[in-house]
Structures are given as C-alpha cells and as structure tokens.
Amino acid sequence: MADLLRPLLVAPDAVLAAAEAELRIAAMEPAVRDGHVLSAVRDVVLEDENRARALGRCLARTGSSPAAVCVGLALLARLGEPADVPYLKTLGGLRDFESPAVYALDTIDRQAAALVWLGHHAKGPELRGLVAALVAEDRTAVRRGLAAVPRDPGIVRPETARRIVEAVRPAGILDAGEVELPSMRGELAARTGWLLFRATSLRDDRAEILYCSEAVRTYEAFVSCAGALKPTLDHYGLLLSAKFELHSGPSRLHDWGPGRREALLAELESVLNRPAWQGVLEPGAEPAEGGDRGERRRFEWARRNARRPLAGPMGPVGPADPVGRLLRIETVVRDPIDSDTVEVRILIDGRPLVAEVFGRGPAHSPEWLLDSGRLRATEEPREVQLAEAYCTEGCCGALHVTIRRDGDEVVWSDWRCPSPPASPLHVREIPELRFDGAAYDAEITRAENDHTWTWPARKAARLIAAGLRDRPDLLSRWGMELGWVGTDFRDPDITAVCLMYAGDDGHQRHCMWHIPEDGTPPEDRAADALCRLATVDPRTYGA
Predict the structure, then answer these.
(1) 3-class secondary structure, 46
(2) Among candidates 286, 260, 273, 316, which has minimal Cα distance to 442?
(3) How far apart are CA 262 and CA 380, in angstroms?
(4) What gap in Å lies between CA 86 and CA 105, rounded to an integer?
(5) Structure confidence at residue 181 (pLDDT)
(6) For 421-448, what is each residue's pLDDT tens digit?
(7) Residue 178: CB partners within 8 Å, gap ≥ 6?
C-alpha cells in the first residue's frame, strides 16, 4: 500500500492521481482490506502535505470503492482541516465508513466525531433521544437528555460515556448558568459524575478517560457542583471515586496546569468532611439487614475507603534522596457498582506508571504483586509482569520489568511492553528507573502490610493463599495444585478457591470451592478451610 501511494501523494493533479489510485487499489492482489488501510497510510512519509491532502479529499469525496474512500479518510485523519468536517460527518453516517470517518474526525473536531459515533452505538430510547437533541442543537432537550442518561453499565459502556461527555460537553451546561433550579443542577452534576466514573472503568481494553478531550473541564465543573448534590450514598460514591481517580488514576495524566488538580482534591475532601456528608456513613445509616446486598456492599466500601487518607504524591522518600525517583504503591478498590475491580497503582514521581506506559489494562492485583513478594528487590535480577492486556498477553501484550538491587539502589530496567494505544498522554519509551534502596524496601513493606482496602471475603482468600504457600503439602497430598483463590466474580462476598488436578483420562480438571460469608472472622474461615484441606479430599466437596 505504501509503495502504491508514494508517487501519487506528490502528483500535481489530485483528480488524475485519485483516478490512478482507484485503478491501483482495484488491481491489488490480494485485495486490500478496509481495516488495514489506516495502519498502512499512517506510516507513509508525506513529502508534500498539500498535495497529499488534495488527494485524500478527492478519494474521500469521489472514490468509487470502499477501499479508495478509506484511503482518502486515512489521509484526512493525518491532514484534515475544519473544511473537511461536513464531508466526514456525511461519510460517517454510513456504516461501512463509520470507523475511519470517526478516526479522521477525532483529529479535527472531537464533538462531531462523538456525535457520529453515538449515532451508530447509542443504545436505548434515552440515548437515542439525546443524540436526536444534539443533532437538532436543542439545548433544552440536550439538558433533559443528559439528566435521563441511564445508570446502566450495560448501556453506558466506557467509550459510550466518553463520547457522551465529548458530544454534550456538560461542563458548558453546568458552568454557563443554563440551569436555574438547584435540584436540576444537582441532577445534571450527578449524571456528569456517573459518566466520568464510567469513562474511568478498568473493565475495558483501555482507560477511555485518557482519550477524553473534555476531561479536565468536566472534572472541574463536576467538583464545582459537588455542594449542590444531596448527601446520599450514591453521590458519596461518585465523589469518593473522583477523589481516588484524580489522586492516582489515569486522569492524573491529563495536562492540569499548576495547582488545578490539587484544588479539586481539596474541594472534594472539604465536601466529604461536611457533617451532612459524614452522616451518610454514620452507624445506623447502613442499609437494613436483608435489604439490597449491593447497597450494603457499597456502604461498606465507602466506609472503608473514607478512612483511607490520600498519601502525598511523592511517597515516603526523604528530600535528600540522591536517586531522584520517588515510589508509592497504592491498592485501590473501585466502587462495587463496577464489579469490585482491585488494582495496585504504581506511582512514579506521583504519576501512575501502568496507565502512562501500557494503557491496555490495569496493573495486577495486590495478591499477584504484593502478597507474592514479586516487587521485592534482590541481588538476583527477576522479571515481573506488572500488568496484562484486558484480553490476554497473547493477544495485546503485557508490561514486564526486571527488578534488581545494585548496591544501595534498586533498579527497574529491561522493560518489555507493546506500543500503547494512540494517545498523547502515553509514554512511548520507558527509561531505566533507579530508587534509593532503603526507601524502596520501606515502601514495599508498607504496601504489603496495608490491608485497609480489603473486605472479609477477600481477606479470607488472602489468608488461605498465604497458608497454601506456607504448606504446599495441603494440596500435593491430594494430587492437586492451586489455580487461584479470590472472591467470586458474581458475588464478591463469597471466597472462591479454584483447584487443579489431572483427571483419569489425563486431561486437566478443576473444581471450584465456594466459601460463603457467614459472619465469622475471616481469620477463622481461613483456618477452617486450611484444616479441611488437610483432612478431606477436595474432590468430595461437591463443587
């Protein structure tokens, strides 16, 4: 494809060049696939941008085959101007050209790109109504549509949330005084907070908030309206989630400018410390026993995390540190309405490492990185997988680093990592990182012993895993090995133990052992589980 296009990109007559490109594309064997065009054109060297732009416009507007039009769209993704937006929007309305047209619009007009994308992907009558209001440029209907965005993760996926924010631009609605009733302003602010929360979800192939052109303005508008929200558990969860996201999540990577992010964190802390908001988590305010288990789980999550102070962004390293790299390890649990995602956030000089250099999935769990001792530094170099793509490593890769001790320093080097998704916020080359050895050891020890984030079923799982590491004979006596131990994917109040063994036919089998929450201390449940493993073959447990 590159060799085919190169001479045509400098042709003086764009019309003739486009006709020749059509013939060459049609004659390609095997036929070029539309999905490969963007990557092929992205790497072509452009010697004359004006002529290449003219060729792109001719192919996009007059191309007679999908492949030719896609080549034009790919060129406009690199060279397009505002004058191209109407044509790109028209092509984007066609299913075959939606993806390359949105890709091109993203570089020119993010609001138009978001609207075209939503036109194809918005689900349900509420979102379809919002799209219709945006197309009609009816601000009153847009406000009503924003307030009606459903609180359904199945409908509002992370990219959907990001595109809604870019298309609606709720910061303009909240800041412009368009909303007179305080109750309506609070409702719009709550929906805005929900969209930000969804855009930061880790249950997708990338953190969509990193690609949100409106992220900074929207966070500032949302936090400025925090005082207009009613002190409820739902609103408390939104504010608490925003606080942890701005402190150590991917949103930290946006260009905030001096003091702006810190001011938002201070405002969130101030609101959550008001007596009315403190009352949301007071004893007696919890959902009734036997009521909605999800609400009770969310209440306990908020109570645990409200007591966790934000650490300084630089971590526990003294000012005389001669190395200059400052490390902080934080375990963060998302609001349970997002399926209890738990990750270890590795902050280097206050910035989230995995989000900045990998971007294809969150860091691994504390059980993988901390309980196992994988982050401890020894004289013997050890490669550690810090994160894996949301799909699998075999599909989209993983982030590996080699950790070793070098005299009084700890070194992270020899990185193995695929190129992160396209975003100006990602770092393409990862340098060797050096830490003061004593400060590094102290931080790893602190992180390994910080269990304030955990809940009873998860704590029982960690204790069982620790017991099996200390006593591998508990499983080997039954010809078994541990697959994993954690909490059930559908019910995080159930401890789940996956055990592996070879069947009579030689194929690997597994059995799942579920240990329900029964009100007893997790230490007792873990001890009982280990005792049972010592005396009873797990194959007889009935799972």
Answers:
(1) coil
(2) 316
(3) 40
(4) 10
(5) 63
(6) 666 677 778 899 999 999 999 999 999 9
(7) 139, 143
Look up tokens 């990193």; give the residue. 210
Instruction: In whole angstroms, give the CA distance from residue 110 to residue 106.
Output: 5
3-state secondary structure of 107: coil
Q: What is the 3-state secondary structure (H, E, C) of 257-292?
A: CCCHHHHHHHHHHHHHCCHHHHHHHCCCCCCCCCCC
CA–CA separation, 29 and 243 (whole Å)? 54
CB environment 466-498: b (16+ within 10 A), e (fewer): bbbeeeeebbeebebebeebbbbeeebbbbbbe
Q: Of 89, 2, 83, nearest to 38 (Cα)?
A: 2
Q: How far is CA 372 from the centre of its chain?
A: 24
What is the Cα–Cα distance from 152 to 171, expressed in whole angstroms? 22
From 354, 359, 345, 341, select the one nearest 396 (Cα to Cα). 359
**pLDDT tens digits, one per residue of 470-524:** 999 999 999 999 999 999 988 999 999 999 998 888 888 888 999 999 989 999 9
Residue 204 corresponds to which tokens in the numbers above?
A: 């997708």
Tokens at residue 88, please? 């790109």
Tokens describing residue 482? 């541990």
Residue 85 in tokens: 């937006």
Q: What is the dihedral of CA 137, 141, 145, 147, to 10 degrees?
A: 130
d(CA 276, CA 230): 9
Q: Which residues pair with 413 in a beta bridge?
A: 402
Q: Give the residue from 409, 417, 350 showing the smallest Cα distance to 383.
A: 417
Strand-strand pairing, 480-487 and 351-352: unpaired
Partners of residue 277 on adjacent β-strands? none
Residues present in the chain in total: 543
Beta bridge mates, 348: 327, 351
Q: Is the pTM of this model over 0.70?
A: yes
CA atoms within 13 A on the CB side of 352: 30
Residue 346: CB atoms within 10 A of its CB come to: 26
CA distance 163 to 127: 11
197 within 8 A of 339, measured Cβ to Cβ = no
The tokens describing 495, both together, are 């401890």
* Cβ atoms within 10 Å of 462's Cβ, excluding its own: 20
Residues 6+ positions from 457 with CB-CB distance below 8 Å = 487, 492, 493, 494, 495, 515, 517, 522
Closest CA to 252 of 369, 361, 375, 346: 346
pLDDT score, position 288: 76
What amino acid occupies position 410? Answer: V
Beta bridge partners of 409: 406, 436
